[in-house]
Amino acid sequence: MPLSRSISLTRFLIEEQRAHQHINADLRLLIEVVARACKTIAIAVGKGDLGGLLGEAGSGNVQGEAQQKLDVLSNEILLEANAWGGHLAGCASEEMDDPHPIPDVYPKGNYLLLFDPLDGSSNIDVNISVGTIFSVLHCPDGVTQPRAEHYCQPGAMQVAAGYTVYGPSTVLVLTLGHGTHVFTLDRELGSFVLTRRDVQIPAQTREFAINMSNQRHWEEPTQRYIADLLAGKDGPRGKDFNMRWVASMVADVHRILTRGGVFIYPWDRKDASKPGKLRLMYEANPMAFLVEQAGGKATTGRDRILEVMPTALHQRVPVFLGSRDEVDEATRYHRDFDAAK
Ligand code: AFP
């Protein structure tokens, strides 16, 4: 529910630390540092053409995708902000091939931070919402120079996750494993203010999000599921469905956290060697954690995303997440299809 009394992110974190054992001073610092970096990114994104930062950087990332200038800048902002606080053992970014070590001149902490610095960046030049997604894990005991394998922990091991959306307003959505909470950036004060505590995604929905242009590449159970949604009240689902697709996962997930829905990026045959488009560690896991903490569900179409055992830092995965009953329904189509094979 919307809040009337103003609670800053700092106050929220301190009160969480007092009330529960699930947050300590280092984790609190980590979240505050990430939030501060996101404010800097919000300023850069908000300048648009005036900042001279639109367009491609002329480089590619580990995924083989063209990097935007703001991808590169957002990555640098997050790396720099998190280097010196002493809260991290290391960090990993969707934009970098290998994990980034904390410089030796600074103390090290016990957390691993993973991030997609600017999700949906192909939308920047057309002034559509983009965002930052992050995930926090414990560094395994005794590891002082974390390598890729130390980051490869299932999403259920996350201690925190969140995203920001740089849209008409800048919002930060956060879970520390005890509910999902929304903070809105007060641009005059320069601080994030708690605006929704304990968000709950409606269990049922009449709205889905998928890139329909890939339809011919989908596998059979995805085809059947979407065909039944499109059939509306004359079909087996007996109700009409609406469709939305922003092509910025942060914006699509934020809509679902706000009013329900199901977000789908399934496996497809466009490039059958890839097990999906979205990245497990930087997109699927943090979003799955946030969605589950808001009463929703998140699967690969078959299995719970948070239980997928990662084998590589930049691994991809199919994603079905959002309203609980609808994700159950989509997952049932895939499981029934497998069982009938
Ligand atoms: P970019 O960061 O390259 O714009 O990709 C965004 C994204 O990873 C995710 O945010 C969207 O949901 C999805 O890709 C959109 O993919 P399509 O362009 O294939 O619809």
Strand order in the sheet with the most strands: 4-3-5-6-7-8-9-10
Average predicted confidence as pLDDT = 94
Counting H and I runs of at least 4 residues, what is the number of helices? 8
- The fraction of residues assigned to DSSP E strands is 15-25%
In CATH's first tier, which class of the largest domain applies? Alpha Beta
Secondary-structure content class: alpha+beta
How far apart the termini lie comes to 46 Å
Return the CATH topology of the largest domain.
Fructose-1,6-Bisphosphatase, Chain A, domain 1
For this structure, what is the CATH homologous superfamily of the largest domain? Fructose-1,6-Bisphosphatase, subunit A, domain 1
Q: Could you say how many structural domains there are in total? A: 2
